[in-house]
Specification:
The complex is a heterodimer of chains A (248) and B (271). Chain A is of the alpha/beta class and 248 residues long. In chain A, 41% of the residues lie in helices and 15% in strands. Chain A folds into 2 domains: 159 residues, 3-Layer(aba) Sandwich (Rossmann fold), CATH 3.40.50; 65 residues, no CATH class. By secondary structure, chain B is mainly alpha-helical. The chains are: A alpha/beta (248), B mainly alpha (271). Chains A and B meet through strand 4 and helix 3 of A and helix 7 and helix 8 of B.
């Protein structure tokens, strides 16, 4: 599906993601998760294969990405960063005002609207990133391990916030993570990827009820069972990936 | 800039207060040392230790400066030089900025223009004064062009380097959020490269000051450069020192102005 020279990052993968689903991809490091997401985002081109995204038909962008790591523009305030997508597609000022203040409010950033990213903590910066993607109102939200750089406490808070915001609008999300817990907490459906070259290993439906409360969720036997099954499935691939890197 | 405190903030109130804080002492030394030097110079000139034909006493230079100011000639020459410097900086910096950023964003353009710039850059700018006078004549344009040349190269080189140094993730964000060429330039490349570009502008203005002095000495009937050259020809050494002082002052003031400009253009670096 995608190659750099002889290197096959992704191989023979067919999947359908219905509109409104929170789709999570887990896989060992280096399995091509990010490559898959970048192809979906239109940032990389697949060497073969097709991607079809049925547009909603409304006047909104196809996708918006929440990047891994710091992707806020240091030279823009929190407000201008969050408004970036809308400004780029020349949304009317009233719509920008409304959408940005709504999502800054939902992420608890209203007080910090005039600050610059370097004045914020890592968790707050990633909240701005999420607000920027949501405010742009895309058909699909792409998230590339958005919480991987955060400490455990902040990660939990942001997962809660993401659940809350997402459950209001139920946009299609493709979310990448290496954490099985995170996948079960957030996702409707989870795809486990094999070690490189990455391909589909299993699809698991998460039928835990929404709205979800993370603390309550973790007490449910069904949650523990799902995490266990997924981790068993993932562990083989992690071991294979480990052998690949250690074996040369 | 505040000094770096080793003790935690809470410890500050109980700090033993010396007679003068470090900061104040450093400021006093900073002001005192040139004053002492000037006094030594004055004494040496008056006692005949140094030759006043080459090193006239500061008081003599000062009184000459006052009379040149009264006649209005110093003001006129300074103003002319300042104007040439300003327009030259503008005509050099704007194309340098646009070309440099475009080079940083576009690989083909960079490959095309980089060898040209690398080949022309080392040519001493002062050596093309005769050619520039030949082409542009003795009017304002030759002086402005010389300054522009001096400013253009550091700006174009720094703008290109600055854009290439922008973290790739910002360009990805631009692409993902569908920023077109124009918006990529204004919202990503320009602000991202601005700190490096401003360093280029500083270097460029320094070079521009050198070149404006040379150009006015050889091809002008006014301006500070001409004033100094004329002073040599008429052997009025005080005039020469007044001109030197005025040029140094322009350099100093332009540094302060650039500091302010940076605060205005890059608020995120000062907050």
């Amino acid at each position: 599906m995608c190659c750099y020279g002889d290197f096959v990052a992704l191989d023979r993968m067919t999947l359908d993601i219905p509109a409104g689903q929170f789709f999570v991809i887990v896989g060992p490091s280096g399995c091509g998760k990010t490559t898959l997401l970048r192809i979906l985002a239109g940032l990389d081109q697949p060497s073969s294969g097709t991607i079809e995204i049925s547009a909603s038909g409304q006047d909104r962008p196809g996708n918006a990405m929440v990047f891994q790591g710091d992707s806020l523009f240091p030279w823009m305030t929190v407000w201008d960063n969050a408004a970036y997508g809308l400004k780029m597609r020349r949304a009317p000022p009233s719509q920008i005002q409304e959408a940005v203040s709504h999502y800054l409010d939902r992420t608890g950033l209203t007080r910090f609207a005039k600050l610059y990213p370097h004045q914020l903590s890592g968790g707050m910066r990633q909240r701005v990133s999420i607000a920027r993607a949501f405010a742009n109102d895309p058909d699909i939200l792409l998230m590339d391990e958005p919480f991987s750089a955060l400490d455990a406490q902040n990660r939990l808070l942001l997962q809660e916030e993401l659940l809350r915001i997402w459950e209001e609008h139920r946009k299609t999300v493709v979310f990448i993570t290496h954490s099985v817990d995170e996948a079960v907490i957030l996702g409707d459906r989870i795809m486990v990827m094999t070690a490189q070259p990455g391909s589909l290993k299993t699809l698991v439906d998460v039928s835990l009820p929404r709205p979800r409360d993370i603390m309550e969720l973790q007490r449910e036997p069904a949650y523990g069972e799902l995490v266990h099954n997924l981790w068993t499935s993932l562990r083989e691939e992690v071991n294979r990936a480990k052998q690949q890197t250690e074996g040369g | 800039m505040s000094s770096i405190g080793l003790e935690p903030a809470s410890a500050r109130p109980v700090k033993r207060a010396p007679l003068l804080s470090n900061h104040t002492r450093e400021r006093i030394i900073g002001i005192a040392s040139p004053v002492v030097l000037l006094m030594l110079w004055e004494i040496s000139a008056r006692t005949g230790v140094i030759d006043v034909r080459f090193f006239p006493a500061p008081s003599a230079i000062l009184s000459r400066m006052v009379s040149l100011l009264r006649s209005g000639s110093l003001e006129r020459d300074t103003w002319l030089t300042l104007q040439r410097l300003f327009w030259g900086t503008l005509t050099g910096a704007v194309p340098g900025l646009v070309l440099g950023i475009a080079m940083g964003l576009n690989r083909t353009l960079r490959i095309m223009t980089e060898p040209l710039i690398a080949a022309i850059y080392p040519v001493p700018k002062s050596s093309i004064v005769p050619l520039v006078l030949l082409i542009f004549g003795l009017g304002e344009s030759s002086k402005i062009f010389m300054v522009a040349i001096g400013v253009f190269f550091p700006v174009v080189i720094n703008a290109c380097t600055g854009v290439l140094g922008i973290d790739k993730i910002f360009l990805d964000v631009g692409r993902n959020y569908k920023a077109g060429r124009w918006n990529t330039f204004w919202t990503i490349a320009l602000p991202g490269a601005l700190p490096v570009i401003m360093t280029g502008v500083r270097l460029g203005i320094g070079m521009g000051l050198v070149l404006i002095a040379i150009a006015e000495m050889t091809g002008a009937r006014n301006g500070l450069g001409f004033m100094m050259w004329n002073a040599w020809q008429t052997f009025s050494v005080e005039d020469m020192y007044v001109g030197l002082f005025a040029i140094a002052l322009i350099g100093f003031v332009s540094t302060l102005a650039l500091n302010e400009l940076e605060r205005l253009l890059m608020p995120w670096r000062f907050n």
